[in-house]
Amino acid sequence: MTNGLNETPKEYNPEYCHYKHELINKDTEEKIILHLCYVHALIINNAIERVINEPTQS
Fold first, then answer.
1. How far, in Å, CA of 7 to CA of 16, rounded?
2. Which of 17, 29, 40, 43 is spaced 20 to 30 A from 7 at the CA atom?
3. Tell me: the pLDDT tens digits for 2-44?
4. Of 51, 40, 48, nearest in space to 15 by CA
5. Rounded to whole angstroms, how far apart are CA atoms 55 and 33?
6. Long-range contacts: 38-45, Cβ < 8 Å, 24+?
């Protein structure tokens, strides 16, 4: 599964926060780079995938 995140650290360490998640604002093309611990990166990535994959209601 490719999720745009770095590989899983060998063991969970809350101090291990070098995961970069890049969000791009489509209106302003501003890049927002989040530095997250692995668990937070997974939570955000899963939420984004859910929103992208949900069928839009018209």
1. 12
2. 29
3. 445 555 555 555 555 566 667 787 888 888 877 777 777 788 8
4. 40
5. 27
6. 38/5, 38/8, 38/9, 38/12, 39/12, 41/5, 42/3, 42/5, 45/3, 45/4, 45/5, 45/21
Give the Cα-Cα-Cα angle 42, 13, 45 (nearest 5 degrees). 5
Domain boundaries, the chain: 12-57
Q: How far apart are CA 57 and CA 22, in angstroms?
A: 27
In the chain, the amino acid numbered 50 is R
pLDDT at 5: 55
